[in-house]
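Ops channel
N.P.: pipeline sanity check, posting one input/output pair.
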């Protein structure tokens, strides 16, 4: 209390000189270096107040606090642009996926600028850096034996001559009989769905009835990581600041045993898979999108690894 009273009595003259980071902002030896990101907003809509409050505003507030503390702070974000939802929106508006991304990225950037969100850089995931980094991570996983190949039963629309990604299928939920369930999840009961489990499936593009056909896909071999993951989690839970919800969900995954997770999709709009036999496929958006944090930073500075591969600072 005495220190606070003394600081108050000194007034603004007693404040430390504001830190002026170099441009681009890079980690500085001996300083507290803080990298902040917001959840990447999906590109196929116009942001509303809920998106602002639930996504970028809390990170913006924290970034401003860090800068007031004279911590060396970098705050990056950008639009998440690959995946089925973009293709669906493109069909709705009669545009190409790239045109949809260009249109809505500009809208997002303008709205965040209007709200004065203090990003150091606001980018996007449809860039050459995204392709390079995502494919490099994929090649490393492949080289270290963390990928496997398997046959998947998938819905194919003969009218559209394409395998149907989850969001291109609707039908009746096999659990609660809701008649407008998506091919990945039922919005009524909340259960995850495999599209081939839907009753009365229908192609969203042409309203035709799809058929089940086998197709080859690549999977992350997550069971291989269980032995290494469990001791790491115990240490992280003991020393980190995990929410109760995050601990509960993670424990349930470990308790039930990790399962292989498919990382490829039969789509055109996405990061291409750089492997013979799979070059007509793209990476599943949940493999690809988190890498967007790295690639957006790489578009901000070619020294991006100093932020993402620098645990000492």
């Amino acid at each position: 209390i005495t220190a606070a009273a003394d600081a108050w009595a000194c007034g603004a003259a007693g404040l430390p000189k504001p830190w002026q980071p170099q441009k681009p902002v890079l980690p500085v030896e001996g300083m507290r270096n803080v990298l902040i990101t917001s959840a990447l907003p999906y590109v196929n809509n116009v942001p509303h107040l809920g998106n602002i409050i639930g996504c970028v505003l809390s990170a913006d507030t924290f970034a401003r606090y860090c800068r007031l503390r004279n911590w060396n702070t970098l705050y990056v974000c950008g639009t998440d642009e690959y995946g089925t939802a973009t293709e669906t929106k493109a069909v709705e508006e009669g545009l190409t996926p790239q045109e949809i991304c260009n249109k809505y990225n500009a809208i997002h950037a303008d709205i965040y600028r209007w709200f004065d969100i203090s990003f150091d850089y606001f980018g996007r995931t449809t860039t050459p850096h995204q392709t390079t980094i995502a494919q490099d991570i994929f090649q490393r996983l492949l080289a270290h034996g963390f990928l496997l190949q398997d046959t998947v039963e998938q819905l194919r629309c003969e009218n559209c001559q394409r395998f149907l990604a989850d969001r291109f299928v609707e039908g009746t939920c096999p659990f609660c009989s809701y008649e407008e369930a998506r091919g990945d999840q039922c919005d009524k009961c909340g259960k995850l769905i495999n599209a081939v489990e839907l009753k009365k499936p229908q192609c969203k593009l042409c309203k035709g009835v799809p058929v089940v056909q086998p197709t080859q896909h690549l999977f992350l071999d997550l069971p291989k990581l269980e032995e290494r993951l469990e001791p790491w989690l115990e240490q992280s839970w003991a020393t980190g600041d995990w929410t109760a919800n995050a601990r509960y969900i993670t424990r349930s995954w470990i308790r039930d045993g990790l399962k292989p997770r498919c990382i490829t999709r039969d789509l055109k709009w996405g990061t291409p898979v750089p492997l013979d036999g799979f070059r007509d496929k793209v990476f599943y958006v949940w493999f690809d999108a988190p890498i967007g944090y790295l690639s957006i930073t790489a578009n901000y500075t070619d020294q991006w690894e100093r932020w993402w591969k620098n645990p000492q600072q």
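N.P.: looks fine end to end. The two ends are 32 Å apart (CA to CA).
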